[in-house]
Amino acid sequence: MLQSTLLRLQGLPLLQGLVIGNEQHRFLIAEQLRQLGALGRNILLEPVGRNTAPAIALAALHALEGGQDPLLLVLAADHVISDTEALHEAIHLAAQHAAEGSLVTFGVVPDRAETGYGYVQQGEPVGQGVYSVAAFVEKPSVEVATQYLAGGQHLWNSGMFMFRASRYVEELQKFRPDILLACRHALTEPESDQNFIRVKRDAFEACPSDSIDYAVMEKTDAAVVVPLAAGWSDVGAFAALWDVLPKDEQGNAFKGDVMSVDSHNSLVMAESALVATIGVRDLVVVQTKDAVLVADRDKAQEVKGIVAALRETGRTEHQLHRQVYRPWGSYDSIDSGPRYQVKRITVQPGAKLSVQKHHHRSEHWVVVSGTALVTLGEQQHLLSENQSIYVPVGEVHALENPGKMPLDLIEVQVGSYLGEDDIVRLDDRYGRT
């Protein structure tokens, strides 16, 4: 969905996209951008989440560096938009008003009495197809939402915006100077390694948490709204994903290896194994390499409760995953047990793991496909498909892909301790310690 967000902007006269995300997702984001050819020091990392007002403040302040003052098009990565042409028309319309100092929000023309979204009430026209904002409204009851739909003056609050970077900073200074000050401190001498821009952790942790709606848009007198009818959906929950996916004659949406008998109106997603359903209705079933979720479709958004329970009981499934992304590629923890662990490692062309050693484990590498350049002590070895090498405990070693195709290999670790913190990095092109 992150890739889709960027791809639907093709054809617009845009600068390089800036992605704002959490520190723990950095390599996942980088891989998605790399696949699009859109990676280049354009990932701004938040050490902690502080909602949308501070995130956009970081983007605006970063954009203003070097004397530039571009228009910012603020998008979320969990939206589905089926009519790209209509989106582009709305963006062109918004840009005219944003360039003149307005803070533009995009209001989705509703097609049902939806209670899961906030609303924007249209005011007077300020141009063709653009209106002042009369009010922002919280998620309504069914009765109120029905009235909004019939009245034709209320739009869904999409969470998409456009404004000049300096204008957002001005309005944030006016209404939430505490947020702006914290973000300025966080961006003082930002660290940069490879494609990441890192802010100061202590300063950003001290920043108040608030949404752009509460912090700025509901208070400013410069807000305008552009109605958008582009097949928009906010896919923030599994039920919303079921809404937008194609379905079979029984109303089921399937993804992956799924078999179904007498099942209806369900979302079933299989990542790495066959999932079979018999006689079920209105369920969400999600199978990943890490866990399986089974929920009533109308209750699936309450998965946050499961995450909270995992955290409270000291489990790690909400933090540690089989598939882990790194700047050089990724690894998948296939199997593990007492004193052993098996991983499938993928190294991107031209990438290299750090020069390192381990105190508690040995490693055995078997090349599945591609070419591996292995440094072992003072020697280098070039391995191809079905060749292997042994890395003893304490031996300095490195792994590199000198080819033009991804390198896949199987790693078998054996030892008394197999944690990721048993890595002594001696040299790393990605600046990791």
Structural account:
The protein is of the alpha+beta class and 433 residues long. Helices cover 24% and strands 35% of the residues. It has eleven helices and 29 strands. It has helices at residues 2-7, 26-36, 52-64, 84-98, 142-151, 165-175, 177-186, 201-205, 212-217, 238-244, 303-312, and strands at residues 19-22, 43-46, 71-74, 79-81, 103-108, 119-127, 130-137, 154-164, 191-193, 196-198, 223-228, 232-234, 253-255, 258-261, 267-270, 275-278, 283-287, 292-296, 323-326, 329-337, 340-347, 355-357, 361-369, 372-376, 379-383, 388-391, 397-400, 407-415, 424-427. The strands form eight sheets. Strands 19-20-21-28-23-26 form a six-stranded antiparallel β-sheet. It has a five-stranded mixed β-barrel with strand order 5-8-6-7-11. Helix 3 packs across helix 6, helix 3 packs across helix 7 (177-186) and helix 6 crosses helix 7 (177-186). The longest helix has 15 residues, at 84-98. The radius of gyration is 25 Å and the shape is globular. 30% of the residues are buried.
Short characterization:
The protein has helices at 2-7, 26-36, 52-64, 84-98, 142-151, 165-175, 177-186, 201-205, 212-217, 238-244, 303-312, and strands at residues 19-22, 43-46, 71-74, 79-81, 103-108, 119-127, 130-137, 154-164, 191-193, 196-198, 223-228, 232-234, 253-255, 258-261, 267-270, 275-278, 283-287, 292-296, 323-326, 329-337, 340-347, 355-357, 361-369, 372-376, 379-383, 388-391, 397-400, 407-415, 424-427. With 433 residues, the chain is α+β, with helices and mostly antiparallel strands.
